[in-house]
C-alpha cells in the first residue's frame, strides 16, 4: 500500500506546515517556546546538576536534587530577568559548584546567605 504511506506522509507534512505557520518552527516540532541563549545556559546547568546527582548515593541524590531545585526556583523569583550581569555571575558560580559536585569525594551542596543590611 504505497499510496497509503504517501497519503499519511503528505498529511503529516501539511499538518507540520500549518503548525509552523501558526506557532513558529520550534513549537511545530515539539520544542516548546523559543529560548534565549542565556535561558538555554541556565536550563543546561540545571540538567547538568541533575545528571551529576545521579552519580551519588540515593539519599545524597535526593538531598542534592531538592537543594538544586530550591536554589534555581529561589533565584528565578528573586533575580530580575533583565539583570544579565547577576545571571551571568550565578551561571559562573553554578558551574564551579557543578565541578565540585562531580568530584567523587563530594556528597552534597550547601549555600551561605549573607545579608548586607547595616544595623
Please give a structural write-up.
With 119 residues, this protein is mainly α. It has a domain of 66 residues. The protein is 70% helix and 0% strand. It contains five helices and no strands. Helix 3 packs antiparallel against helix 4 and helix 3 packs parallel to helix 5. The relative contact order is 0.09. The N terminus is likely disordered. It is found in: Mitochondrion matrix. Its main location: mitochondrion. Keywords: Chaperone, Mitochondrion. This is Complex 1 LYR protein domain-containing protein.
Counting DSSP H or I runs of 4 or more residues, the number of helices is 5
User: Considering DSSP H and I runs of 4 or more, what fraction of the residues is helical?
Assistant: 55-70%
Going by helix content, strand content and strand pairing, the class is: mainly alpha
What percentage of the residues does DSSP assign to strands (E)? under 5%
Describe the structure concisely for a colleague.
This is Complex 1 LYR protein domain-containing protein. The protein is mainly α and 119 residues long.
Protein topology:
Blueprint: H1 2-23, H2 25-28, H3 37-53, H4 58-78, H5 84-102
Helix pairs in contact: 3-4, 3-5
Features:
Complex 1 LYR protein domain-containing protein; mainly alpha; 119 residues; mitochondrion; 5 helices
Amino acid at each position: 500500500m504505497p499510496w497509503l504511506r504517501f497519503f499519511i506522509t503528505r498529511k503529516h507534512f501539511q499538518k507540520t506546515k500549518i503548525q509552523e505557520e501558526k506557532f513558529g518552527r520550534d513549537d511545530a516540532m515539539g520544542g516548546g517556546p523559543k529560548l534565549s541563549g542565556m535561558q538555554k545556559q541556565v536550563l543546561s546547568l540545571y540538567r547538568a546538576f541533575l545528571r551529576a546527582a545521579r552519580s551519588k548515593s540515593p539519599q545524597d541524590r535526593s538531598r542534592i536534587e531538592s537543594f538544586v531545585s530550591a536554589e534555581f526556583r529561589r533565584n528565578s523569583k528573586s533575580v530580575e530577568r533583565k539583570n544579565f550581569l547577576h545571571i551571568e555571575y550565578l551561571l559562573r558560580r553554578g558551574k564551579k559548584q557543578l565541578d565540585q559536585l562531580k568530584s567523587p569525594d563530594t556528597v552534597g551542596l550547601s549555600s551561605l546567605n549573607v545579608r548586607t543590611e547595616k544595623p
